[in-house]
Amino acid sequence: MWIRQILLAVIGSSAGAVAAGGLFAFIAELGVISDFADRTHTGDKIQWYETCVMLGGILGNLFWLYQIPLHGGVILLAAVGIFSGMFVGCWAMALAEILNLFPVFMRRFNLVNCLAGIILGIAAGKTLGCIWILLQEAK
Questions:
Q1: More confident position, 82 or 27
Q2: What keywords tag this UniProt record (predicted)?
Q3: How far is residue 15 from each of residues 9, 12, 24, 33, 54, measured CA to CA in Å?
């Protein structure tokens, strides 16, 4: 019986490692990390950035998997929310940039004059959606 449990643990851990490796390879391929280093003129710290991304993924999974409580109240929740939103937003924008989504979309629908309004609308929609979800979970 315990051999089966060990085998399942090895298979589960291996599958998780492969999936996480694929996600981080995708992030690296999109150029999110190198783009940050390029725009902030801190290319000499690229290994530090990569280490932080890796540790963030590992620690985030461990906290979620083992339900480790974090005692920080609203301030910690706000910090995690801000950093998570920055990460997802940068990841989405890097993907859109790679695919040339916005130039093609703007030309096809003749929306070049409305670009500022569209960007503000996307940002406001994401912000309101996040606030709504947080308020729903707080109930």
A1: 82
A2: Membrane, Transmembrane, Transmembrane helix
A3: 10, 5, 14, 25, 17
